[in-house]
Amino acid sequence: VPGLPAGPRTAVAQEAAARQEAGARQDAAAAADTADPYLWLEEIEGERALAWADERNAATLAELSARPEFGPIRDDVLAILESDERIAFPSIRAGMLYNFWQDAGHPRGIYRRTTWEDYLAGDPAWETVLDIDALAAAEDVPWSYGGMTCLPPEERMCLVRLSRGGSDAVEMREFDLERAAFVEGGFFLPGAKGGATWVDENTLLVYTDFGEGSLTTSGYARTV
What we know:
Layout: H1 8-33, H2 47-65, H3 70-81, E1 91-93, E2 96-103, E3 106-114, H4 116-121, E4 127-131, H5 132-139, E5 143-150, E6 157-164, E7 170-176, E8 181-182, E9 188-192, E10 195-200, E11 203-207
Antiparallel strand pairs: 1-2, 2-3, 3-4, 5-6, 6-7, 7-8, 7-9, 10-11
């Protein structure tokens, strides 16, 4: 009651509140003293974080390339990766054999196909289905091929995954495997750390950036 002296309970409550406030100030001070000075590295697209990664990469490359064995090992590995004698491991789709191939002439790669007969004969005649180098040049985007998901059982209509420079974020486009062409007006998902899977020819289950609250702290989709 205003004007009356504080009773025992009021005094105890005031003392407890004061102790709580003092404790909160101490916690805040302790948190400030122990704050992570490298928290900015968690900003995976941040300019400062990317610059830091570039600096470390440059320092590592400089140290490794100064070693006499670096050049020969690099050349040997590159020769193996670009060799025409590599086994073209195929995937089977709708009775044809498909293979993604990269070499010196196709650094971004081509998705190609051949018949069982040609493949088993040992010298297959490959037909290019999707040329990533040509697509990147036409659209002036450094596309990297991330695979495709096709609608069973026909496996004609597919969702091609493309990423800019090999990033985790992928753009998805509907692709007609039989015609070897993207579908005009077909399914399209802009670049995001997500993806999609087929339900039927007119329906997809999509996990992507749907706006605020739909992504994890690392930028991946949490909502389907």
